[in-house]
Amino acid sequence: MIATSTTVSRTTGAPPAICDPWFGTINEHLMTGRAYNSYLTWSVRVTGSDERLGDLWGDGDTAVTLQRTAAGHYRVGNCPAN
Amino acid sequence: MPKPVFRLLPASAVSPLLRTGLLLLSVLITTTPLQADSQPLNSPSALPALNIDLNQTSVSGISSGGFMAVQLHAAHASQIVGVGVFAGGPYQCAGIGNQLTGVGMALNVCMSGEADAEASLQRLADAYRNHLIDDPQEQRGDRVWLYSGYNDGVVKQPTMDALDQYYQQLTLPGLVYYKSNEDAGHAQIVDNPQAQDCLLNGGDFINNCAYDGAGLLLQHIYGSLKPRAKGALKGHILAFDQNQWASSDAGMAATAYLFVPADCEHGEVCRLHIAFHGCLQNAETIQDRFYRSAGYNAWADSNRLVVLYPQTTNSNGVRFNPKGCWDWWGYSDPLALQADYASRNSPQIRAVWNMAGQLASAFKAQPAPAESSSAAELPLTAADNSDRMIALHWPPPQTAATTCTAPIRPMARLSASTATNHCKMAAFLTVVCNPAVDISTSWNNSIPVRR
Which SUPFAM superfamilies match (chain B) (predicted)? Predict the structure, then answer.
């Protein structure tokens, strides 16, 4: 027989809204199209937001998190806490 | 004792001479005896022979280590009983090409959340047909614990969803637990206020989410364990010579690490857990932080678990692996058209499994416990919950249970993938709930087992 005096319980729920982060080096962001070389400003820029990530060819190993805010549009930053 | 401070600089920022100096410095740091929590760490020595039952071995890993854990599980499924993965992906996600096509697949498919469970299952079947791995049927009944933070910016969550689908096809219903509803970044998830913030992608990839990932995965695999040790551990960390086990072209470091509980050192029967670090997490890069702070040792100390921490090395050579990742795309077989990185014969899997064999070489089989005809009830706890799963744990039966008189009986308002005989082979069950919001569920608090 199963004991019935007490129970254990947990609550499930729908997943929270998802932020869409992409972490990698500047070189990796360049390789995957999340960043681009701006020869006009001699810098690497974020695709969509045009934020500056670093110098052209100098900062490729620097790691940074981008958030995708729409298709083909990224900006610098970690996801906010819930 | 303060931790040695050593920061890797971008390769382009230092001269070759300085890089050589830094490399030598890193080797010095990683091979200098360090202070264990309670006892001094030995200088690199031979891997000991212990009284370990290899047929109770489990494996886990984070990121590239998660991919490697899945590969090792596939290669040696006949002896591995469970696997835990933080932010990894399914078997041979990067395909069976050369290391260049593999890198492309890794970056653009696997890490970008485009992994395909069916393709991985097909590669698994092909590998078995070619006698490269154990029979995938051996994975049936194995316990699988998966974690993916939805802020993971390195291995996107759909790839872990694919790993969940992959294992749902391989093992039994209720034996896969997948936690995907926390806001963590890409990391080994720990319950340690001294670790970095839960949301981060980067740093040492060990994040404090007030969530004991290592403890939960070990209990999912082995059933309820004794509480993790607090304060100074009785066991100790051993640095051993990995060169004895890994060929020089395997991409593995000269020194690796082992946590040995005191009981195991004194000859008691123990079990083995193999924990793979991720990229940028080997001892060359973050010194002792993974093998001390990933969360395993305190549980191992009180539960007769030996933890093996194999180590990669960073390489800018032909086996291009500057971040010290485990091989899940083919760098350790760089000249092959079809790189062998995921079979029993691949350099890293062969090395790690030979280490496991050495550790278990002093195993003495124990007589089976006597069976009893009496019925018993085992206390039940809800260990964890996800968006659609609840993990229930109970202590493993002390004697061989042959039948459960009843399955766990969930209360109304949910459909459960319960099966009547799970209690004889495992000490946990995952109950999958309807995808409705805020289902509160209750279970009676014991599992009757008839022997």
Answer: alpha/beta-Hydrolases (SSF53474)
Report pLDDT digits (tens) over B169-222. Answer: 999 877 899 999 888 999 999 999 999 999 999 999 999 999 999 999 999 998
Count of all residues that appear for chain B in the document: 451
Is residue B56 within 8 A of residue B131, CB to CB? The reply is no
State the pLDDT at residue B248: 80
Tell me the pLDDT tens digit for each residue of B355-378.
999 999 999 987 655 544 455 555
ipTM of the complex: 0.77
In a domain, A44, yes or no: yes
In one letter, which amino acid is B114? E
Chain B residues in contact with A13 (beta carbon < 8 A) = 181, 387, 437-439
- A49 falls within a domain: yes
B 164-203 residues with CB < 8 A to A: 180-181, 183, 185-186, 198-202
- What is the number of CB-based contacts under 8 A between chain A and chain B? 118
CB contact under 8 A, A78 and B108: no
Contact B35, B247 (CB under 8 A): no
Please count the helices (runs of H) and the strands (runs of E) in chain B: 11, 19
With beta carbons less than 8 A apart as the criterion, state whether B142 and B81 touch. yes
Look up tokens 């900006």; give the residue. A75
Asked whether the beta carbons of residue B409 and residue A2 sit closer than 8 angstroms, the reply is yes
Looking at the domain assignment, is residue A48 inside a domain?
yes
3-state secondary structure B292-324: HHCCCHHHHHHCCEEEEECCECCECCCCCECCC
Write the pLDDT tens digit of every residue in A9-27.
666 666 666 788 999 999 9
Residue A13 lies in a domain: no
Number of structural domains in chain A: 1
Is B11 close to A28, i.e. CB distance below 8 A?
no
Q: For residue B350, give Cα distances in angstroms to B18, B64, B366.
A: 34, 17, 28
Interchain contact, B448 vs A2, CB within 8 Å: yes
A-chain CB neighbours of B433 within 8 Å are 12
The range of the structural domain enclosing residue A36 comes to 21-76
